[in-house]
From TrEMBL, chains A, D:
Pathway connected to this protein: Cofactor biosynthesis; molybdopterin biosynthesis
One GO CC term on file: molybdopterin adenylyltransferase complex
Species, as recorded: Diversispora eburnea
Chief place where the protein resides: cytoplasm
Protein known as: Molybdopterin synthase sulfur carrier subunit
Alphabetically ordered keywords of this record: Cytoplasm, Molybdenum cofactor biosynthesis, Nucleotide-binding, Phosphoprotein
Molecular function GO terms recorded: molybdopterin synthase activity; nucleotide binding
Protein family according to the UniProt entry: Belongs to the MoaD family. MOCS2A subfamily.
TrEMBL record, chains B, C:
Source organism: Diversispora eburnea
CDD domains to which the protein is assigned, alphabetical: MoaE (cd00756)
Any one biological process term the GO annotation gives: Mo-molybdopterin cofactor biosynthetic process
Protein's name in the database: 3578_t:CDS:1
Highest taxon of the lineage: Eukaryota
């Protein structure tokens, strides 16, 4: 079985993907860890409408916010990645 | 003996009742209680619930590092909230009034900025996700 | 058509119920409601009631000149207030949260500084009239 | 009938005078108006224990605060004067 990570979609990202969540396998080129730049490319290629939303979103990895262009962060096997559009609670 | 619970965070589709949330933060030593609640026109809320709980508990912990507080409750409603009902209630008790007054203001701002919660306004010609201004 | 009542001031020996006072300031246009309430150890309050009402209405009017508020309620209990009951409740509604949050803090400070109301603490060895520090 | 004004006592001033209020006639030397300095002298002479309290109090005339040493203010017939010790509401 290939290694996987999970992606959660909320609000406008959920509308754009028509998904609450999905499980994605690591690419054969990077079988156990990808950068956030690779993550963004993978998500964009899977969901046409998501590109524009990602420009204004953050990621949360295992419920911790990371900037979408943080080059020091990698997604690893079993991670839970969330696409977090601008929040509007209250 | 277990420490009595002092922080209360809930994301719920239930109706939020101010008095019940004030009762959570009541304390013999608490002279002052400040509350903030927001009522809405019809809105839909959704949340990344476990992360929102974590973010709000962290925000409460930061609030406690700034002011001397007794008990803190943050309740946020999810799903469809009918007109005139509460979407969020914060209640904080403290010995001195300045502390709960300042802390409520700071904590509602933290919630709006950081908690992964989204509201959707429902118009006759479609819905639109809102964005909090910082 | 008469203008709906927007300012509510009451000095009373009745129990103060938070929800009732919040209901006074509820309004279709009011997104935000901030409340402040103080609970006491057993205390006795007295007031120069007609002057206190006048002073509090003037303070409300000054508060309204500083922030855009919808409705304002200031209730103060008099006589003997049993342990754990509310001595004072302020509730203010506004369109935007910053306004009711700031206004409640300012108004409770005005009340404590200016309203002719006095509290007496009852000790086993006698009573003492308190003085608010400015 | 001589001209009169009314004095109200609250909190520690009430305890010191054992009165909630009293009606006082203007002195024959000033039959229709007295200064606050004269008022203070009259009240002190009527109530021994009031002197110390007046040092830290304000007056209210017809429900308006005045400083106890304001020389521009006079008490006139029918006025309601209140002795206001330091307030402690809230």
């Amino acid at each position: 079985m290939s290694k996987e990570f999970k992606v959660l979609y909320f609000a406008s990202a959920k509308d754009a993907t028509n998904l609450s969540s999905e499980t994605i396998s690591f690419p054969s080129s990077n079988p156990s860890s990808i950068s956030l730049q690779e993550l963004t490319q993978i998500l964009k290629s899977r969901h046409k409408k998501l590109g524009k939303i990602l420009e204004h979103s953050m990621y949360a990895i295992n419920m911790k916010y990371v900037e979408i262009d943080d080059t020091s962060i990698f997604v690893k096997e079993g991670d839970e990645v969330a696409v977090i559009p601008p929040v509007s609670g209250g | 003996m277990t420490e009595p619970k002092k922080d209360f965070v809930k994301l719920t589709t239930d109706v939020l009742v101010l008095q019940e949330i004030v009762d959570l933060v009541k304390d013999n030593g608490a002279g002052a209680i400040t509350t903030f609640n927001k009522t809405v026109i019809k809105l839909d809320y959704e949340s990344y619930i476990p992360m929102a709980e974590k973010v709000l508990l962290t925000s409460i912990s930061e609030t406690r590092s700034k002011w001397d507080l007794i008990k803190v409750a943050v309740y946020h409603r999810l799903g469809t909230v009918p007109v005139g009902e509460n979407s969020v209630i914060i209640a904080i008790s403290s010995v001195h009034r300045e502390e709960s007054l300042k802390a409520v203001e700071w904590l509602i701002n933290q919630l709006k900025e950081k908690a992964p919660i989204w509201k959707k306004e429902i118009y006759s010609d479609g819905s639109v996700w809102k964005e909090n201004k910082h």
